[in-house]
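Weekly structure sync, notes
Attendees: PL (lead), two postdocs, one rotation student
Agenda item 3: pending single-chain targets
PL asked that the sequence for the first pending target be pasted directly into the notes so everyone works from the same version. It is reproduced below exactly as submitted, 93 residues in total.
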Amino acid sequence: MESKIKDKNTDLLFKAVLQLKNIDECYAFFEDLCTVPEIKAMAQRIVVAKMLTDKRVYSDIAKETGASTATISRVNRSLLYGCDGYKAVFERL
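Predicted structure, written out during the meeting:
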């Protein structure tokens, strides 16, 4: 499958992320790179993805995370029809 986001700029971003050695470096890098709401939104999405992977229902996920049903649905579509990125990460955690 050809990525819709692949280009030299995204390659640099991902190579930079792969250089991070620990959680403190991740905090420093992402706080420099992103706004707090962007980080919070990404964190919320990965929590939603984990809960969906664990077969939790939308109403519980919305209640526990504060995510909208639209966000939960988008994450679920990624889990079902995406590139298996969440799956790869969850298998390694």
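Discussion points:
- The helical segments are 8-18, 23-33, 36-53, 58-65, 69-81, 85-92.
- The two ends are 25 Å apart (CA to CA).
Action: rotation student to compare against the earlier draft before next sync.
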